[in-house]
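Annex B. Sample input.
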Amino acid sequence: MEKLKPVATERRRQMRNDIYRYIFYSKEPVSKQQIANALNVSRPTVLQNLLELEEAGLVEMAEIRESQGGRPPAAYVAKGDIKMALGVSLSANQLKFLLSDLKQNVLAYKEIDLEYQTDSDVFAITEEQLEVFLTENHVDRKRLLGVGITIPGVFDENTKNLILSPTIKLKDFRIEEIRKKIPYPLYFENDGISGGVAEWLSRDAEEKKKDFVYLFLEEGVGGAIFLNGAPFYGVSHRSAEFGHMKVESNGKICNCGKRGCLEAYCSALRLSTELGITIDKFFEDLEDNPEYQKIWEDVLEHLAVGINNLRLAFDCDVVLGGFLSYYLQPYMGKLKEMVADLSIFGEDAEYIKIGQYPRRAVMMGVAWHFTNEYIENI
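Annex B, continued. Sample output.
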């Protein structure tokens, strides 16, 4: 891949970037005329920029699927395999890696069960296994844009350090310590926000404009908020900590140390670690196990309260994500009935949706940070 030719002005660079992004986000190959019409620019301008993008290996020619007869017009697509980004999910019990190209095609995936005692263990294992994963999959490090790492915790907006992660028992951790040891560009984000970003990015242009909240259900409970076509992070980058809204007065103890939090009732840990089994085993035995049925009924009841609270606060769709949402699918009818019964407006609960990527959203969302940065700077 060749470097793009430098341009004389920022305006000229922005025009080239607009053309590239139009091609990149188009679901089908696009012709020069389609680009000119969509961006309201002349065909010579389009042609000049296309030549530069093609010479740099960023776009390539492809055939338009449907033609009105005769020779089909030349069309262009963005190449997805020229760069890669790695998403890493760090949770209480697992370390997950997902490698994707520019088009979010999954190139490799791996899960590792974790046992550690200290924060040093957590990141030493992450550092070691990251290199193992890249080597196993023959990744060309020169094509790797960066490594995004999600953690179920709250980050300081100014220092970017991890303030608190109750799920993995971390507090006041200096992210700089990890940066010294991993030789790639790094980006850290809350897991719920990353999952929400993946859901948002999976939507087409019109759907992206619609408000929704994302309720993330894994070993912890969190989420993300999307208003006016963009993520809403809050004043201190602490929005959507839905897992710590109180759903019971003086209820079950939560990992955060408080009582009655939604996370204490609806996290995957309640169905696995607390019972000494895997999440798969819980759902395999659920139908024939009265104890599990009682626990699951309680999970659904508290989840319904949480969802109803979100609807009252935001008045928009509620999208359920995280790997627990995968297991929720057969119970969505019952859950919607529970939520509808709580509504003061007598509305149904069809606004509740299951996310596009129940199992891999967090890694896809955090990897997108580097992909988006790359695309925006062409």
